[in-house]
Specification:
150 residues, mainly alpha
């Protein structure tokens, strides 16, 4: 768990450092460019002429329909519904009477009681600072060149 956290933070640190390179180069190129020119003013749009008001003729009135009484429905007698014949319920065959053998229940072994060792009195501290990396390249001693014969 801790290793995955460290890998995640390391990958975020690498991603941020690589993205900062492009940002600084873009800022340098932006400083190299000349001052932006003022854009020309927007053209003035022509005004829209007002449309004339049109008067519409009044809508015609809907004529009143005469109220007519509906004739009464005929009181016809409907035939009675047919009855369904009753059916006998099917009988199921009896279940087989086989005896299931009983299995012995296994016994669970008891867990021995263990006492834990006592905790140390002082809790170790972990460093909270990141060590600094050297910024200079160490010199490597070389052998002196051989003397020239001329």
């Amino acid at each position: 768990m801790a290793v995955s956290k460290h890998c995640f933070f390391l990958s975020v640190l690498v991603a941020l450092s690589l993205s900062a390179i492009d940002t600084s180069q873009a800022a340098r190129h932006l400083l190299d460019t000349s001052a932006p020119t003022v854009p020309p003013p927007a053209p003035v749009l022509p005004t829209i002429p007002a449309l004339p008001k049109v008067t519409l003729p009044p809508l015609p009135s809907v004529p009143q329909l005469p109220k007519t009484a509906l004739p009464p429905l005929p009181a016809a007698q409907l035939p009675p519904l047919p009855t369904l014949p009753t059916q006998q319920k099917p009988t199921l065959p009896p279940l087989p009477s086989t005896q299931i053998p009983s299995l012995p229940i296994p016994t669970v072994p008891t867990v021995p009681q263990v006492t834990l060792p006592p905790l140390p009195a002082t809790v170790p501290t972990f460093p909270t600072t990141i060590p600094t990396l050297p910024t200079t390249i160490p010199t490597i001693p070389f052998f002196s060149p051989p003397p020239s014969n001329s």
